[in-house]
Amino acid sequence: xxxxxxxxxxxxxxxxxxxxxxxxxxxxxxxxxxxxxxxxxxxxxxxxxxxxxxxxxxxxxxxxxxxxxxxxxxxxxxxxxxxxxxxxxxxxxxxxxxxxxxxxxxxxxxxxxxxxxxxxxxxxxxxxxxxxxxxxxxxxxxxxxxxxxxxxxxxxxxxxxxxxxxxxxxxxxxxxxxxxxxxxxxxxxxxxxxxxxxxx
Length: 200
Prior knowledge:
The chain is built from eight helices and four strands, in the order βαααααβαβααβ. It is of the alpha+beta class and 200 residues long. Strands 2-1-4-3 form a four-stranded antiparallel sheet, with helices on both faces.
């Protein structure tokens, strides 16, 4: 089964500072600034290479549904995150989605990719951005989605390697190479971390 990964330019420390901040101004901005779970941000950098078509298709399926009280649960999850808890294991997936809504307020959306777990050619950058923070305190582990972080330092250190590989072979790493290079360049230029969220 294919999944969609969304990537943002946001400092991890800035996101972590939101937890328990009681920042009602931010909470209201997320809740009242239009339903971001129904649209993609206008600052999207289009995906490159063979992943482009599937990414555009799956970006729609990754948006949060209004059915069965899902949006209301995500609103409750937002309030819980900003209040600093208590966190409920049964709402683990809602916390991940709420964190993405917060990231959409904190930094630009830089791209997406489709992937599937068990792909031997999946680059570690994709996997880390999808799962690197799954189950990390204070959030319970979700089985239906996840998130991860790649630090700006790691992005800068990896950029030369990936640029070299893609220059030799544009389809390097099962076609993910060009995507990875774009994200790493964006991180270096902005001096910010990459934060990813998967679902779908």
